[in-house]
Amino acid sequence: MPFTTYCDVAQDNTNSYSKNSIPPYMKAISGSLGGIMEASCLQPIDVIKTRLQLDRSGNYKGILHCGATISRTEGVRALWKGLTPFATHLTLKYALRMGSNAVLQSAFKDPETGKLSGYGRILSGFGAGVLEAIIIVTPFEVVKIRLQQQRGLSPELLKYKGPVHCARMIIREEGFRGLWAGVAPTVMRNGTNQSAMFTAKNAFDVLLWKKHEGDGRVLLPWQSMISGFLAGTAGPICTGPFDVVKTRLMAQTREGGGVLKYKGMIHAIRTIYVEEGLLALWKGLLPRLMRIPPGQAIMWGVADQIIGLYERRYLHHSTL
């Protein structure tokens, strides 16, 4: 059965449990706890991805060479650069993503039947991605990327001493809007990612495990991780150019009164294509695929346990 057709079937089956909806705050809590676990496990891959995307001169020969070079020249702890803003960012991002998606899904449900259409699920995911991109993702990623692109072992020689100092320096030198550099490609990337991820996760849960929201069943962690991993694979391939452009826009500064190389999202795409070739727009794709699908697996492995236990204790039992 084609995947798109199966999504419709899964949607119809899920609608039979629509009365047993989970409160948005529970979705938010489950997402935030999952985000903490994901950040702790996968920060080194994110650092390597950022360095590869910022590498214009070919200093790094690949993922392993990049990681080894960072460890050798800056110390192993450098692979966890930006962990504090990254962990905080993921915690807040997943709380907002999961909570807002639940609220938007409720708004898109048919008021008479309580059914959520496939389009409603996609739009809910896109809306959640846009909200997280504007409110949470962009300012935290600007700080994270500025910290990650710094090279050196001596803290006193680094421009940014930490996440708070970095944010203050950006506001002082570039204005408050400097924390929202690269917001346009971030909105496009996150909106597309989340519309695909929520739709795919729901479909894989039904397809693989016959699990419907509100049915009182709790997936085993490995089942949730498989669904989350599969749901997290398509986004990085589709949104690679947005991610590269986002990183470049966030990394550039006006230090010394210089002129910015990239004027915006479209200009950055054109410039990268002309100067570095088409494939440069997918720089860092492999480390993204090494980080995002496993990250989604970790996050959903935690979140589904919390959501499932809530379903079984407060929703399923109440209908018995």
Automatic annotation (TrEMBL):
- Pfam families tied to this protein: Mito_carr
Question: Where does this protein chiefly localize?
Answer: mitochondrion
Q: Which PROSITE patterns match?
A: SOLCAR
Is Cell cycle included in the keywords of this UniProt record?
no
- This protein's UniProt keywords: Membrane, Mitochondrion, Repeat, Transmembrane, Transmembrane helix, Transport
Which family does the entry's similarity section mention?
Answer: Belongs to the mitochondrial carrier (TC 2.A.29) family.
Name listed for the protein in its UniProt record:
Mitochondrial succinate-fumarate transporter 1
Give the species this sequence originates from: Glycine max
> Taxonomy-wise, where does this protein's organism fall, top ranks first?
Eukaryota, Viridiplantae, Streptophyta, Embryophyta, Tracheophyta
